[in-house]
Amino acid sequence: MEPEIIVTILGIAQDAGIPQAGCSCERCLNAHENPGLKRYPVSLGIEGRDGSKHLIEVTKNLSEQLRLWSGDDIEQKIFIPDSVTITHLHLGHVEGIGQFGKPVMGVNNLPIYLSQMNNDSMQERNDVQLMIEEGNIRLISKNQFQPTNDCGFTLEFIPIPHRSELGDTSAILIKGPRKNLLFLPDQDSWSETLDSFSVRNIRELLTSLRIDIALVDGTFWNLNELPGRDLSKIPHPTIEDSIHYLGMKKINDPDISFIHLNHSNPVNDHNSEERKLVESYGWSICERNDTLSI
Q1: ω into residue 19 within 30 of 0, thus cis?
Q2: What is the pLDDT of residue 76?
């Protein structure tokens, strides 16, 4: 029997994580006092059939996430990824990239996959250029690829409408031998995403991509949770709207879980009424260290 391909959820939070810098909300203050309430920015780890390790997103909490991914055996070495894939260039998704360089890990020729537009943008960063020149990393743009020859899965960039100040945004379609997983942590709105695929609803989109598991943007619960901030400048579909569009889970629906949770989102609390409502519809909230077999 061939080894399984395992996807591990290494982080579930929006770019800033929890606690968020400078925030005095109750959730962030509690996370300062209780490390168990901390949340790392969104990231996935994929272990291939050949034992290779492949990281999706590189966050400020890279050290903790690699330790988490490596498991409970404190005698074993911390995983070093064999590849990194980046959805887009907003802060939390690339903030840890400098740790691959000489001041920290000093890795050798690590392939980093990203879209051509994001590749061009990253090439303009002096710190990234230095890591390329010193042989720490290499930037690669491919739409669909196997990160190692015998990993047993492919990754594919799926363009997604999302604010593009620094580059473009993609979801990542992870195609395993048994299941397909869609990693969609950021988008501006379902309507724009659906229009870009010329489909009518979320189910039709997921069916068109043959998705079995979808990890989708759950940044905000609704538009009322950040008084004083203009959410039109940081657009995301709300979970409240998403479950309204989806309705109850039906037989043969893919498994849908919400990820990329802002510190203000009440579904961070396991006993919140909002989280219970999501679960009553048959959907779920991602948790750090959850594993998925594809």
Answers
A1: yes
A2: 74
